[in-house]
Design a protein that fits this description.
mainly alpha, four-stranded mixed beta sheet, 4 strands, rod-shaped
Length: 362
Amino acid sequence: MRSVLVIAWSDIRRVLRERESLFWLFVGPLIFTVFFGLLFKPPAPRRPVLAIWNQDASPAVVQAITPLLETDGVSVSEAKAVEPERVTLVVPAGAAEAVQAGKGVALTLHAGREETSGERSLRFKIQTAITRVYFAPPGSAAAAAAAPAEGPLSIAEGDLGVPRREVTAGFQRSVPSYLVMFVFLNLLVSGAGIAEDRASGRLRRIAVAPVSRREIILGKLLGRFAIGWIQIVYMLGFGLLVGIRWAEHSWAFFGFLSLFALASASLGILLGTLFTDPDKCATTAVWAAILLAPIGGLWWPLETVGPAMRRLAYFVPTGWAMEGVNAMLAFGAGAWDVAPFALGFAALFAASFALAARRLQF
């Protein structure tokens, strides 16, 4: 066991002495995470603002719909004319009398020439308020008895049985995305160290020492696993500083990340056994990570792509990792929710580690 720790510590020290490795462990991930976290940071929610120009002699309609709109999150103000800078609702003359008689009233909403989603939502809220007023006309007994929060109309929620997928944004999205991407990238690229050890004869010198083949491969795996966890802790620490939501099931979260790091480290070792040239090994690892990152939903949410691309993400390790990490950090998923992805990483680790152990040559 001591020889395993010595081999692992030697590899860790060698990685932490290289400036290029330090950059891609600590600086590069932070640059990407901050840039895209700020770029896609959702704007702070703002209450929609509506100006009402009452042309009616009676203020009854305005007085009836104003509390309903404010209860629905709309800021209402009075206007004396249509204001180009603000969305304005015009209540025509005779509106209160028409509503009392149950007749139609043509209220005019002055908005932008091209309707935005915010204006569309505001229009729906106005229609809802007007409908409730018609069920309880101003001055009627129903209007006096109805509370604005409840109203004469009520909506009961029903489950369609279709799961809703939330989309994370800002740092809540960029931290797990680039944690997964750079841990996977660095551990794949670490396979070049295996190829370099073979080319330089370092592995041969280790093999003549009183250590077994099993101890050598375990030491190489442990060193890479530790490097992966150093980067994971660094990225999660930064995430906590910028205020991301934390996983509700911490031990399940750490266990999942450990399986991800083990699978990525063993894949890197396997990749190192396939090449004799360290540069070719590193180049292949970089391109593999770049190709698998968008497929797994690391560069953009899978909710924004077509169904074929979403299905493809479930066949690549970056997709398993992003789905699991994002679900646990953002939505409180537990061990059972991410179990299929965890089993995938366990199987990937077992298969790649067994192949790497068989192929490793001194």
